[in-house]
């Protein structure tokens, strides 16, 4: 049996669709408001269902309730919508426009072709760019974070990773499970073992054993 739709501050899925469609029509108009409503109607329930485990896992979210005026939740929802549209294989511009809307409203560059994990938390992720990489479950990302490939080399992030503000993860970097990249730390082409903290010390990258479960500060269990 299909689970019931989340409790929505918008009131209902059709009203939420009309809210998103109005934003798209006003900021990135294309084929008209009615056409946008029709396309969004076809993907909104799938996006909301993918939002369910995120709402359940993030400590400062209320499980089973989506608030479109909560900008952290809305940024996540717009990515999920754009990804769902891309997964349909459609060649229309809706996925591009949803990406543009998310970037304009929330200041995050999270392209719809990326496959994000079941649980990820965009915590005030203004100015963050999440590029080509492999992302494990339970990812926590703060503001001004950059993740991306260099040439053909792209990062691999394990499960339960926290990227604090200003973290940069590029190239053929491997971040092991339950690890942290500290604020303003650049990790390029480095293997960070499981249960570690990568941080800058005296201008050099230092990798130390993790002594605290940082992920648990932000997420309930992701299992």
Describe this structure in words.
- With 223 residues, the chain is an alpha/beta fold.
- Helix content is 32%, strand content 22%.
- It is built from six helices and 17 strands.
- The strands form four sheets. The protein has a six-stranded mixed sheet.
- A hairpin with a 2-residue loop joins strand 16 and strand 17 (204-209).
- Helix 1 packs across helix 2, helix 3 crosses helix 4 (71-87) and helix 4 packs antiparallel against helix 5 (94-106).
- The protein is globular, with a radius of gyration of 18 Å.
- The model has no long low-confidence stretch (mean pLDDT 96).
Strand order of the largest sheet: 4-7-10-13-16-17
Supply Rg.
18 Å
Structural class: alpha/beta
Order of helices and strands: EHHHEHHEEEEEEEEEEEEEEEH
Query: What is the CA-CA span between the terminal residues?
Result: 22 Å
Taken as a percent bin, the fraction of beta residues is 15-25%
Low-confidence stretches: none
Largest sheet: 6 strands, mixed
Q: Helical stretch count?
A: 6
State the oligomer. Answer: single chain
Please tally the β strands and state the result. 17
Overall geometry: globular
Average predicted confidence as pLDDT:
96
Helix content: 25-40%
Jot down its keywords.
223 residues; alpha/beta; five-stranded parallel β-sheet
Concise structural overview:
The protein is α/β, with parallel strands linked by helices and 223 residues long. The chain has 6 helices and 17 strands. Helix content is 32%, strand content 22%.
